[in-house]
């Protein structure tokens, strides 16, 4: 114990103080708990459920962007034809 200066009181947390009261600790055997049991099956169904819930938020804007891009691509190809150059010349004059 720490009766005089320089005496060893113990390691951190065990420095000679009285034990705490009313502290309950619980443990589980490592052989009983299997933390990954069924996780792959749950992961597959959880990914499917979350994907299904978010599908419209991705598909609808994707369709809109695809259509805008396709129209712009087609119009750009039209401008490189003879009729497209004539129309562009007529509009810019």
UniProtKB/TrEMBL annotation:
GO CC terms in record: mitochondrial inner membrane; respiratory chain complex III
Localisation per UniProt entry: Mitochondrion inner membrane
Transmembrane segments: 55-72
UniProt KW Electron transport keyword: yes
Domain of life: Eukaryota
Record bears the keyword Mitochondrion: yes
GO terms of biological process kind: mitochondrial electron transport, ubiquinol to cytochrome c
Keywords: Electron transport, Membrane, Mitochondrion, Mitochondrion inner membrane, Respiratory chain, Transmembrane, Transmembrane helix, Transport
Topology versus the membrane: Single-pass membrane protein
InterPro entries, A to Z: Cyt_bc1_su8, Cyt_bc1_su8_sf
Chief localisation class: mitochondrion
SUPFAM superfamilies: Ubiquinone-binding protein QP-C of cytochrome bc1 complex (Ubiquinol-cytochrome c reductase) (SSF81508)
Pfam families (alphabetical): UcrQ (PF02939)
The protein's assembly and partners: Component of the ubiquinol-cytochrome c oxidoreductase (cytochrome b-c1 complex, complex III, CIII), a multisubunit enzyme composed of 3 respiratory subunits cytochrome b, cytochrome c1 and Rieske protein, 2 core protein subunits, and additional low-molecular weight protein subunits. The complex exists as an obligatory dimer and forms supercomplexes (SCs) in the inner mitochondrial membrane with cytochrome c oxidase (complex IV, CIV).
Annotated family: Belongs to the UQCRQ/QCR8 family.
Functional summary from the UniProt entry: Component of the ubiquinol-cytochrome c oxidoreductase, a multisubunit transmembrane complex that is part of the mitochondrial electron transport chain which drives oxidative phosphorylation. The complex plays an important role in the uptake of multiple carbon sources present in different host niches.
PANTHER family cross-referenced by the UniProt entry: CYTOCHROME B-C1 COMPLEX SUBUNIT 8, UBIQUINOL-CYTOCHROME C REDUCTASE COMPLEX UBIQUINONE-BINDING PROTEIN QP-C
Protein name as catalogued: Cytochrome b-c1 complex subunit 8
Lineage: Eukaryota, Fungi, Dikarya, Ascomycota, Saccharomycotina
């Amino acid at each position: 114990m720490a009766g005089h200066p320089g005496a060893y009181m113990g390691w951190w947390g065990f420095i000679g103080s009285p034990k705490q009261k009313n502290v309950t600790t619980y443990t589980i055997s490592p052989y009983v708990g299997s933390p990954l049991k069924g996780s792959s099956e749950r992961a597959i169904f959880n990914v499917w459920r979350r994907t299904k819930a978010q599908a419209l938020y991705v598909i609808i804007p994707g369709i809109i962007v695809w259509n805008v891009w396709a129209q712009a691509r087609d119009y750009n190809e039209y401008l490189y034809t003879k009729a497209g150059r004539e129309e562009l010349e007529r509009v810019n004059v």
